[in-house]
Design brief:
Helix content is about 45%, strand content about 15%. The chain has helices at about 1-5, 10-25, 30-40, 70-80, 95-100, 115-125, 135-145, 155-165, 190-205, 225-235, 245-260, 265-280, 280-290, 295-300, 330-340, 380-390, and strands at about 55-60, 85, 125-130, 170-180, 210-215, 225, 310-315, 320-325, 355, 365, 370-375, 395, 405-410.
Length: about 400
């Protein structure tokens, strides 16, 4: 079915029937393994063994303010592991790693395969967009899932993600499975199902894999938007920045070091990651990657040179109390309104647009204190964006319990 549909021999209405059957009936693990292999083998499968015996990739299921990959790739490469990373653009309410990287002036993500391999050999890291040759059947099937309302099927999600990541050729993979109101999968039970299934797919394909289920009930870090998030990445790689983002990156780096056989346990991996940040190696590797791919190193050394929007507007709290909840999905859609994301494939990104949060869950706010700042070049959307953003915050008289950042680790 996959091969026939990819070649145009099987009509879309027949594959739609299969997708609908999978959506309602589910799939056995063996069936998911077969579907993943078929989609992976529908295009080019990279062989990275000549570059390194230990190549480790990372994938996130998507969230708001999730700029972890841009921190993690140079950090782990600075520790001696080859990190070949193919990333995506913004999708719905979530941001895209490629859009964030392209907010660095001159940064090229559409590298040829030869350049991709050359930079991996030279610097152990390269971050590029998905190529048309990697799992092309997945792209066609996803478009059909989108119009047949069969996107939210755990077997289909798992096969889609893993067919692409396995085709990219790394021999180990770290998965960040987001859960919460800002994630594509909102409840923890289904997030665990997806994580476990993807780890089993990797095992079936003889690849090392770990999945970490992480919170997306509020944005990660404070910055939402492309150049705004690059600035926050620079802060983390210089040993500063938000504590939640920093601790998650250190945790992920430790797991990647363990998967790549650079350390014997997670604790020693964390120590190694912290040292690479402290001695400047991780930030230096980010600059090296940017230089390889045509990006402005000056703008990384001096973030004020990164793109900015024309207008800024502060959102004030209407009352005092503790931030109880944040509707992360709505914040993502508000960021899209500012120009930081896409309503559809033809939408143009404003690299300087987005939102900076000043308060997160558990923080106290006085009446009139700033909750967030909106950045945009679209002055006409400012009033509605403020209203929508304000509705995303829930304030309570009592302090809520501390948010859990990591729910579960599956190896």
């Amino acid at each position: 079915m996959v091969r026939g549909f990819n070649k145009g021999l099987i009509p879309s209405y027949q594959l739609s029937a299969l997708l609908m059957a999978i959506f309602f009936r589910g799939m056995s693990e063996t069936e998911v393994f077969s579907l993943t292999k078929s989609m992976m083998n529908s295009g080019e499968v990279l062989n990275l063994s000549r570059l390194s015996r230990n190549t480790v990739d990372k994938h996130s299921t998507g969230g708001i303010g999730d700029k972890v990959s841009i921190i993690l790739a140079p950090l782990v490469a600075a520790g001696g592991i080859t990190v070949p990373m193919m990333c995506g653009r913004s999708l719905g309410h979530t941001g895209g790693t490629i859009d964030k990287l392209e907010s660095i002036p001159g940064f090229r993500t559409n590298l040829s395969k030869n350049d991709f391999f050359r930079f991996l050999k030279k610097s152990k890291v390269a971050m590029i967009g998905q190529t048309e040759k990697i799992a092309p059947a997945d792209k066609k099937i996803y478009a059909l899932r989108d119009v047949t309302a069969t996107v939210e099927s755990i077997p289909l999600i798992a096969a889609s993600i893993m067919s692409k990541k396995l085709a990219e050729g790394a021999n180990a993979l770290l998965l960040d499975v987001k859960t919460g109101n800002g994630a594509f999968i909102k409840d923890i039970r289904n997030s665990e199902k997806l994580a476990l299934l993807m780890v089993k797919i990797a095992k079936n394909m003889k690849r090392k894999c770990a999945a970490i289920i992480t919170d997306m009930n509020q944005p990660l870090g404070y910055a939402i938007g492309n150049s705004l998030e690059i600035k926050e990445c620079i802060e983390i790689l210089k040993g500063r920045g938000p504590e939640d983002l920093k601790s998650l990156c250190i945790e992920f780096a430790a797991h990647m070091f363990l998967l790549g056989k650079r350390v014997k346990n997670i604790q020693s991996g964390k120590i190694r990651a912290l040292q690479l940040i402290k001695d400047g190696s991780a930030f230096k590797k980010l600059c090296e990657m940017a230089k390889n791919q045509g990006g402005s190193v000056k703008s990384l050394e001096n973030p004020s040179l990164l793109p900015s929007s024309k207008y800024a507007c502060r959102l004030k709290s209407p009352r005092k109390g503790y931030i109880k909840d944040i509707n992360t999905h709505e914040i993502g859609l508000t960021a899209v309104m500012t120009g930081a994301g896409r309503k559809d494939l033809s939408s143009k990104i404003d690299p300087g647009a987005g939102i900076i949060l000043h308060k997160k869950i558990g923080d106290f706010t006085d009446k009139g204190e700033t909750l967030a700042t909106i950045y945009t070049s679209r002055q006409n959307i400012m009033v509605y964006a403020k209203e929508r953003l304000l509705d995303s915050f829930s304030v309570s008289k009592t302090r809520p319990a501390k948010q859990k950042l990591i729910y579960k680790i599956i190896r």
